[in-house]
Design goal:
The chain is mainly α and about 325 residues long. It is about 75% helix and about 0% strand. It contains 14 helices and no strands.
Length: about 325
């Protein structure tokens, strides 16, 4: 390392110099970029007249094919799992979220859809209270309410007639929140490659059945778009899953907002879309509220660990 590089590294906070933190940050940033690029290919396929249900099938098929080199390199050992039910459940929820999201990308400006989709951590708080019976205190409920005020800033229901399609990315956020809970649970025992492979393995036949009812054969140009879509999907999910396996979700949450500038840039370059003036302040309100929720959860988890009596030697990941 050069002297300049050494001095720069020395100025970083100690936590940021940890290899796991740096790698998780890099993986999450790459995931956001590929996710944004994937949306461009979804829009291109939808603009060609292809139904989003069929687009979802090809996305899953080519993402599964993109995973084959990983399967070969692991010698099929990476496919070993005792949690097929968990993988199947995540695939079903993921398919619903995918259809909602692809409809959002096809029918709404991409930056607006992305900003509204940032509500999924807010729904994660609600689901944690309702389903997991977690205790959510007043400050987290207040932050959740503030986040939904950001949604209103973007939608501006007082100024324009609210279009039903505006609720599509919010619906996608609900199912994405459910999927994120399952990913975190699966990542405790499963590798990133295993999680992504089984998701696409189950998603492909699940998506094929409804796609047969709206089938149209793509042109060769759209075949290239669909292949690129599947590759971006596999790379984004693989990078995201590796990031979550390395670092807590609360620490990674702020990085997820990199999706918005990536999406805005790609949408402008590919389609000439310019985000409305209300997108950025609304997204900032949502981001601030979800960042507070993530930080609050991390503080409570840290306090719980400190209050817990020693249980003997711990594994590096904190598990018994």
């Amino acid at each position: 390392m050069s002297a300049e590089g050494f001095n720069l590294a020395a100025r970083l906070p100690a936590a940021a110099r940890q290899p796991g933190v740096l790698q998780a940050t890099a993986y999450m940033s790459v995931a956001c970029a590929f996710f944004a690029l994937m949306n461009v290919f979804v829009r291109l396929a939808a603009d060609s007249g292809m139904d989003v249900i069929q687009i979802a099938f090809f996305r899953n098929l080519f993402a599964l094919m993109a995973m084959l080199p990983w399967v070969i390199s692991t010698g099929f050992q990476g496919l070993h799992t005792h949690r097929l039910g968990g993988h199947l459940g995540r695939a079903v929820i993921g398919q619903i979220a995918m259809v909602f999201w692809f409809l959002s990308v096809a029918l709404l400006p991409m930056a607006e859809a992305t900003a509204l989709n940032f509500t999924f951590p807010l729904f994660g708080t609600i689901l944690a209270a309702l389903i997991l019976k977690e205790r959510v205190r007043a400050r987290r409920w207040t932050a959740t309410a503030v986040g939904f005020l950001g949604v209103l800033v973007i939608l501006q229901p007082w100024d324009t007639q609210l279009a039903p399609v505006s609720f599509l990315p919010i619906g996608a956020a609900v199912f994405m929140a459910c999927s994120a809970i399952l990913v975190k649970q699966l990542s405790r025992t499963e590798s990133a490659g295993t999680i992504v492979f089984y998701m696409n393995l189950f998603l492909t036949p699940i998506a094929l059945v409804p796609a047969l009812f709206v089938w149209m054969w793509p042109t060769w140009e759209i075949w290239l778009v669909l292949i690129a879509l599947g590759a971006c999907a596999a790379l984004s999910h693989l990078s995201m899953t590796r990031a979550y396996a390395m670092l807590d979700a609360s620490a990674l949450q702020p990085l997820d907002y990199l999706r918005l500038p990536f999406v805005a840039l790609f949408a402008f370059l590919a389609f000439g879309e310019i985000p409305s003036d209300w997108i950025w302040p609304g997204a900032a309100i949502i981001a601030a509220s979800t960042f507070y929720i993530a930080r609050r959860e991390a503080q409570l988890a840290r306090a719980a660990r400190l209050a817990r009596p020693p249980q003997g030697p711990q594994a590096p990941d904190g598990s018994p």
